[in-house]
Structure formats: C-alpha cells, structure tokens
Design brief:
The protein is built from one helix and seven strands. By secondary structure, it is of the alpha+beta class. Strands 1, 2, 3 and 4 form a four-stranded antiparallel sheet that branches. A three-stranded antiparallel sheet has the order 5-6-7, with no helix packed on it. The longest helix is centred in the N-terminal third of the chain and has 28 residues. The radius of gyration is 28 Å and the shape is extended.
C-alpha cells in the first residue's frame, strides 16, 4: 500500500513539474503568444540577394521581435511574398500588345500584409512552334 502511495505521489509530482515547465517556456518565448495581443509584422527581408532566408520584424507596443522567414525565389515582386492569390487561366494573346493576361483573387494575406483584393498579371505571348513527333524506339523499324 505504501508502495502505491509513493508511486502516485511521484507521478503527480512529475505531471505538475512538466506542466509548470511548459507554462514557463511559453512566457519566456514572447511574441504572438505573449501578453501583447496586437502584433504588426513587416515584410520578410532576405539576408542576401532578393530571395531566400531572411528576417521579419514585428512590433507590439514597446516590444520588438525578429523571426526567421523565407522569400521564395519565384515570387512576384509586384504583389509581395505574403499575399497569396488564386489565379484564373491565361487569357488569349492580344495581337496588338503581344501579351496575355490573367486575374488573381486574394486567397490569403500572411502577417497582416496589405494586399490588393484582385490583381492583373501580364506576360508576353510565346510564338507557337510546331512540335516534332518523336520516332518510336524498339522493334518494328524497317
């Protein structure tokens, strides 16, 4: 009986110390989970060149925090890496301008980024080239 009581006390002690450690980590961490509720985040600024790993700075009252972020190397600079859009298919080629266009509707704005609701993206038309038919490999050649 004493053995059981000792084991139950040990388990209760371990559970309480584990819970206290988790709470301590959350308070120490700061940032979005801390006592400050209104964090404003700036854009992700790459450490070198115009894409790759970088930092994003956030402010809340007197607190400032920098977190690591990543700017994809295929991002469109006109609307930023934090604005995610759902795009339609490319339209027909406009013969007058030599471009084709498609529209994007805002799907998600990360880190409270200021994004346009809809955007229009254009690119040059590609000249149509005939595709060559490939000869079949293997048996049956004469």
């Amino acid at each position: 009986m004493q053995h059981r009581a000792f084991l139950l006390a040990l388990i209760a002690f371990l559970a309480l110390s584990s819970t206290a450690a988790k709470k301590k980590d959350k308070v120490k961490k700061g940032g979005p989970g801390s006592e400050c509720a209104e964090w404003t985040w700036g854009p992700c600024t790459p450490s070198s060149k115009d894409c790759g790993v970088g930092f994003r700075e956030g402010n809340c009252g007197t607190q400032t925090q920098r977190i690591r972020c990543r700017v994809p190397c295929n991002w469109k600079k006109e609307f930023g890496a934090d604005c995610k859009y759902k795009f339609e298919s490319w339209g027909a080629c406009d013969g007058g301008t030599g471009t084709k266009a498609r529209q994007g509707t805002l799907k998600k704005a990360r880190y409270n980024a200021q994004c346009q609701e809809t955007i229009l993206v254009m690119k040059p038309c590609t000249p149509k080239t005939k595709t060559k038919t490939k000869a079949k490999k293997g048996k049956g050649k004469d």
